[in-house]
Amino acid sequence: MKINPAARARAISSLAPGELKRALAAVPWIKCLVLGLALGFFAVFLLLPLIVVFAEAFRKGLDAYWAAISEPDARAAVWLTLTTVAIALPLNLVFGVAAAWCIAKFEFRGKQLLVTLIDLPFSVSPVVAGLVFVLLFSTQHGWFAPWLQAWDIKIIFAAPGIVLATIFVTFPFVARELIPLMQAQGREEEEAAIVLGARGWQTFWRITLPNVKWGLLYGIILCNARAMGEFGAVSVVSGHIRGQTNTMPLQVEILYNEYSFSAAFAVASLLALLALVTLAVKSWVEWKARQALDFNDDKQDIAP
Amino acid sequence: MSIEVRDIHKQFGKFVALDGISLAFPGGQLTALLGPSGCGKTTLLRIIAGLESADRGMVLLEGEDASNTHVRERQVGFVFQHYALFRHLSVFENVAFGLRVKPRKLRPPEAEIRKKVHALLDLVQLDWLADRLPAQLSGGQRQRIALARALAVEPRVLLLDEPFGALDAKVRKELRRWLRRLHDDLHITSIFVTHDQEEALEVADQVVLMNHGRIEQVGAPQEVYQHPATPFVYGFLGAVNYFHGRIEEGRVHTDGALLHADAAPGAESLAAGASVTAFVRPHELDIVPESEDHAVGVAARITRILGFGALARIELTGLSADARNFEVEMGREQLAVRGLHEGQRVRLMPSRIKVFERERDDDLVAGAGI
Questions:
Q1: What digits encode the pLDDT tens for the residues A45-89?
Q2: Fewer CB within 10 A of the terminal residue: chain A, N end or C end?
Q3: Tally of structural domains, chain A
Q4: Span between the terminal Cα atoms of chain A, in Å
Q5: In whole angstroms, what is the distance from residue A29 CA to residue B132 CA?
Q6: Which residues contact A297 (CB under 8 A, 6 or more apart)?
Q7: Closest residue of A to B153, CA-based?
Q8: What pLDDT digit, counting tens, does each position of B22-54 carry?
Q9: Residue A186 carries which DSSP code?
């Protein structure tokens, strides 16, 4: 007899936690094997690299570490990364919310195309993305070269190019996070608000935004993490000018290629630290969001 | 305030939701839009509210064309099937919302808002829940809050979209009585959409029956129940048995026998030999023991006898070739007097029939027929 996978999943999930425990206890070596494999993977592929980053960074002592990260080029790289994030993140926040709002709440022609386009930065290699910007905005052979030369604007091999590439690569995060959430919530609450006399902005600020705030925050965190860590696309458009167009990931690569391992790892440790902070904030947001959700579910049916 | 719609058409892709609807809703009355799902009743309600726009036709609010008036200026109260309460706002803030979003010049002062919201919460008897979130309420409570919220902006019209559709049977019954009482107190022109004929007949002053985007019948509950204008209405309002037959000498013949001894109402205008369907309500069908000399009625066999309350329900299968199922309702005492039992061969004798020229079968099946 063929067992329908959905039915099987239901049967498994219908086991009470206690039953599942007992079922596993019957074969202790399987439990140990699975647990061992998972922990082993975690240790080798996640924990070890993290430890290595910090160990290498501090190998030559605290003073060397401090010197490496306070060196002007490193400071410039940190500054450029933070500036890029500070520009890219708000823009993607606005684009993402606007796109998600359009897609989730309205019906229009070409909606599916728009959804696919939003995913484009995910499916295209970052290097290709970088090249696209070079072809568009290069002052020598770009499509807009004459215009850029006439106005003496530098985009490629300068900060604007890095910002553009980062925006492109991190574009989908906020929208992707919000679209399913907004679609699940439907349009009724907004309709109710409008019938009650709320104008478009009032509806958005008072109803739509509060309803998606946790999803939005989660999208922002992911977007932020990617914006700080982006290497491929930024590498193509940056030109690697020290102290000017190097972001933190690029700075790490340059230092590493020059055999300044400690310095490379010192800058890398800053990135890792930022990642850890991001993870902590992300876990907190998830926890808060789940709390809000549980609250909604638990209190669903109190007697009338 | 009176509402009128004129020649409303609405199409979704190839699906015709509304096909030339013209209706007048008298001021101060509670009207039910009744019909099976997909008949266009909700679409009509949303068009009246302004949440949807008609492809053609006009909505008149108090005699004025409202086609170009935005939803927020129509001053309608709308109650959604799934409540659509603002999940992140407390019950109090939900009800206060309509007052808080008013333009600054029209917005009442805070003290007045508080007073008004508490008065409305009192009206729906839920003032003690003011600080709760919607998720902490039961379905019935949520729907009452939704109603209070809709009333807060003092709407000229109240529109309710399947207001009790998501509630369980008992709460539903309580709430619809409560809605009726509330309407008697407030006298606000109200339209509510439902697919539950009992609900419509019990609550409304006027019932509008819809099917396939058209109006089948409009009338007071008594009137539409007693005198259904179309086979669809007959089938939709309550259980019904139907017999296919042929008109001869103004009477209905089925399976070679006369269905009913008297001339059938509705058959006068039909030509002899016309193919017809006769409708009989379960309580208008009598069961007599089968004997050879019967020239009237339909032969059938009792398949089940269900007796729960004062009325017993008897299910039968016809003995003609198409083995149609029938349903009869009679008092428990009558059942005992007649000594009926399962498996027995009997004859069904209608005491009252209504005849319509035969239409497509699916129209009958769409109703609550047997």
A1: 989 988 988 888 888 888 888 888 888 888 898 899 999 999 999
A2: N
A3: 2
A4: 46
A5: 50
A6: B135
A7: A196
A8: 999 988 899 999 999 888 899 999 999 999 889
A9: -
Q: Are A142 and A197 in a shared domain?
A: yes
Strand B3-12: give its sheet, edge to edge.
B15-25, B3-12, B56-61, B64-65
**A11 within some domain:** no
Please check whether residue A270 is in contact with residue A165, taking contact to mean a CB–CB distance below 8 angstroms: no
Task: Examine the domain organization and report whether A270 and A184 are in the same domain.
Answer: yes
Domain presence at residue A236: yes
Q: How far is CA A185 from CA A84, B86, B144, in A?
A: 33, 11, 21
Residues in chain B, pLDDT under 70: 264-267, 292-294, 359-370
Residues of chain B in Cβ contact (below 8 Å) with chain A: 49, 51, 71-72, 76-78, 80, 82, 84-88, 97-98, 101-102, 133, 135-141, 146, 149-150, 152-153, 171
Q: How far apart, in whole angstroms, are the C-alpha atoms of residue B313 and residue B351?
A: 17
- pLDDT band at A17, cuts 50/70/90? low
Whether the CB-CB separation of B191 and B27 falls below 8 Å is answered with no
* Residue in B with minimal Cα distance to A302: B138
- Residue of B84, B135, B138 lying closest to A191 (CB–CB): B84
Quick one: average pLDDT of A154-165?
A: 86
If asked whether residues A39 and A127 sit together in one domain, one would say no
- ipTM of the assembly? 0.80
User: pTM here?
Assistant: 0.76
Whether A44 is covered by a domain: the verdict is yes
Residue A66 shares a structural domain with residue A175:
yes
Backbone angles phi and psi of B305, in degrees to 5? -125, 120
Cβ contacts below 8 Å, chain A against chain B, sum to: 78
A206 touches chain B (CB under 8 A): yes
Using CB atoms, pick whichever of B97, B98, B135 lies closest to residue A299.
B135
Per-residue model confidence as pLDDT tens digits over B291-324: 766 678 888 889 998 877 788 888 998 887 777 8
Residues A112 and A41 reside in one and the same domain? no
Domain that holds residue A36: 18-57
Instruction: Flag whether A9 is in a domain.
Output: no
Read off the pLDDT band of A299 (50, 70, 90).
very low
Across the interface, of A195, A198, A302, the residue whose CB is closest to B138 is A302
